[in-house]
Amino acid sequence: MVLLENLKLPSFTPAVRAFFAAEGIVTVEDFVLHDLHKFLAVAEQSPVSADVKEAVTEALSYLENLQEKWKGGLGLSQQGVRYLSLGCRSIDELLQGGIQEGTLTELVGASSTGKTQICMQAAACAAYNHQCSVIFVDTCGAFSSQRVAHMLGGILGSLLQVEDQRTELTSALKRIERIAVFDVFALLTFLQGIYDTLQAGAEKNRLRLLIIDSVSSVISPVLGGNHSQGHALMISVGQILKKLAARQRLAILITNHTVAGIGSHPRPALGGSWKAVPHTRLMLSHESPRSDIYRMSILKQTSMSCSKQTTFRIGKAGLLPSDTRENATEL
Amino acid sequence: MAATSKEEILQWLEVSESAKTMLKRVVERQQPSIAPLPPLHRVALHGGHVLEVAGPSGSGKSEIMLQAIISCILPKEWQGHKLGGSEKPAVFFDLDCHFDMMRLVKLLHFRVRDSLGALEKMSGRAVPAWSLAMGVESLDELLATSLKRFNLRRCFNSFDFLVALKTLRPFLKDLEMEHGSSPQLLIIDSVGAFYWLDRAVRSASSGKGRKTLSLHSVSEAVVRELSQLVCTYPTLLILATKTIIHGDTTKEYSNQVGSSIIDRNQRDETFLGAGSSASKARSWKQGQSHREYMPAAWQGFVTHRLLVQGPFDSGRESLIFTAKWDLPPSDREDRFIISDSGIELASGRF
To answer: Which family does it belong to (chain A) (predicted)?
Structure first.
């Protein structure tokens, strides 16, 4: 709650403030909730009518300037779309180029269906191929820098090249920042922190990818019961993620584990209200317990029709399309 | 005092409108604001109406909105070809941050090509006749001028949304100046986006009788701003989407597509096993009773409501969605599919 006078607008003279207060408008919230037409009609009869009118106009334009502006359709259509490749041909083809910048992509799957592997591969690929910084928010302690190094090796192709490009590899690894977060409050604080830094533009940040593995493990503990606070926290996380994606053009990759649903069919731990948060929802499953082939299918996607799927393999050096074998040199 | 009242009476007695202008105004208002494309084709929507499209996430709500936008921003005719648009500006409040510009551009392309397709068929050539006759540049220009009529604003909380609504009037005036016609379409996607956030505010106590952005006060303010807007712009049609929160959460997952092969097969059985199409349609509805969660102020503001469901596996390649009018109530259920080129009514047996 912010008091209107704290906005320090020049048109809010004591007389004007007194008039606002008499009508019950003291805070900014009061102001946006109030019927301003009625308010101005009342003001017509007062001696400070002109000043009040000016104050309303000034306050509105002040509040509007804090926000995103209206955007024309033509400008938006020329903005273009950028994708961050995942370094695996079959997955990139399914997603028409990888994870899209400015959107939230969610991986849903039971444990050991390759969620974290895809996250680490995305981090490695973005840091090396796209030369951008990556933030990896680790809520279950599953991040392994060694594994990411292996994946970077896989991207390079062979051991020989790895030796040549050791410095580049190190700098790519340095671009990946891992943050351990274990509860929803810490997550919210951290995300707000990133947003504020990016918004301030203090550093010419090259952050393009934000990964949260997994978002469900910090949110599901606060859900349940008859209280709506848990849902409010969950949607707050969703809102700040959407804000980061939309305003800072970040690609955001999050994971969501599954729980047993009806008839032992797995369902996403965060379902219902959370479903409106990600733009793309990808389901991962293990083809069969014996094979090393995994399946990825599109559950929800805003820009194309759904129900497409693909398969991939998780090898020593990262993700591979299921129809290719790993190079002998890597083994 | 007496003089003013006499003046007032005289003013009141004065002719305010001739029958001709009144008829023109009423008829204008009665014309459907946007081309009645499925699934909105059963009810004619005019200015001043408020349509709520309600359905679970992923049931094609946003797609219906995109289609409405295209109908609004496309011109009526272009170089002698009917495009069926209204050539009016449209404003879009993106509360969900799910708006996909590329999808809109793609659909716009498809729609224009579809409308011009008649020529192509007549000439019977592999190369579209219109592209030869008019050139790609003029087509690009058509798309660009249409897209200019579309305006988007993202809001991240109820406060943003209220400020945006309060400052909408001068913006609409600018649009009117620029395009020579008043905006015809206002879309809110989706109206319940801040439900949980606003609900939590209510439980946080507000001291000293100050107003807070609670669910009820926000929706009352939103409805008030919108109704005042409709007074100024009587031809404005308001469309809103609302994500349904299912009463029965276990049902929800089985509606999702492609989750696993077993899941899909099972649904195929229930789909194909049932008898007539009507009984099938009913079996989908079971357990999907939606719970109204928007406050009374919003519910009272809505004049039309369309319920959409889906996607359902049809056993074929395309997924089926269903649409049913809830307000005005109707028993008829339309089925449609969403392909890359947009919404089509599903025909034939499924």
So the answer is: Belongs to the RecA family. RAD51 subfamily.
Is B102 in contact with A303 (Cβ distance < 8 A)? Answer: yes
For the record, the structure tokens of B343 come out as 């919404």
- Find the closest chain B residue to A297 by CA distance: B258
Residues of B in contact with A39 (CB under 8 A): none
CB contact (8 A) between residue A60 and residue B163:
yes
Give me the amino acid identity at B195.
Y
What are the tokens at A280?
């793309």
- pTM across the whole model: 0.85
Chain B, 249 to 288: residues with Cβ < 8 Å from chain A are 249-250, 252-254, 256-260, 262-263
Q: Does B174 touch chain A (CB under 8 A)?
A: no
Q: Which residue of B has its CA nearest to A240?
A: B156
Identify the closest residue of chain A to B263 by CA–CA distance.
A265
Question: Quick one: pLDDT band at residue B261, thresholds 50, 70, 90?
Answer: very low
Indicate the helix (H) or strand (E) that contains A208: strand A207-213
C-alpha distance from A316 to closest chain B C-alpha (Å)? 26
Contact of B303 with chain A, judged by CB distance below 8 Å, is answered with no
Which tokens belong to B97?
């941050």
CB contact under 8 A, B102 and A81: yes
B311 touches A: beta carbon within 8 Å: yes
A299 vs B256: CB contact, 8 Å cut-off? Answer: yes
Tokens for A315? 């090898």
**Residue B122 C-alpha, separation from nearest chain A C-alpha, in angstroms:** 31
Judged by a CB distance cut-off of 8 A, whether residue B316 touches chain A is: no
Question: Touching check for B103 and chain A: CB below 8 Å?
Answer: yes
| Nearest residue to A156 (alpha-carbon basis) of A147, A144, A145, A165 | A165
A residues 33-62 lying closer than 8 A (beta carbon) to B: 33, 35-37, 60-61
Q: Report the residue of A6, A74, A100, A294 to disrupt the B interface, i.e. the one with the largest count of B CBs within 10 Å.
A: A74
Task: Give pLDDT tens digits along chain A (331 positions).
Answer: 788 888 889 999 999 999 999 988 888 988 999 999 899 999 988 888 899 999 999 999 999 998 888 999 999 888 888 899 988 889 999 988 899 999 999 999 988 888 999 999 999 999 988 889 999 999 999 999 989 988 888 887 665 566 677 788 888 899 999 999 999 999 999 999 999 988 887 565 689 999 999 899 999 888 877 777 888 999 999 999 999 999 888 999 999 998 877 767 778 888 778 888 899 999 998 877 778 889 998 888 766 556 688 889 888 888 888 876 654 333 3
Stretch B147-151: mean pLDDT, rounded?
94
Cβ–Cβ of B160/A265 closer than 8 Å? no
Task: Please state the ipTM of this predicted complex.
Answer: 0.89
Which residues pair with residue A137 across a beta bridge?
A: A179, A212
On whether the CB atoms of residues B73 and B147 are closer than 8 A, the answer is yes
DSSP per residue, A104-152: EEEEEE-TTSSHHHHHHHHHHHHHHTS--EEEEEESSS---HHHHHHHH
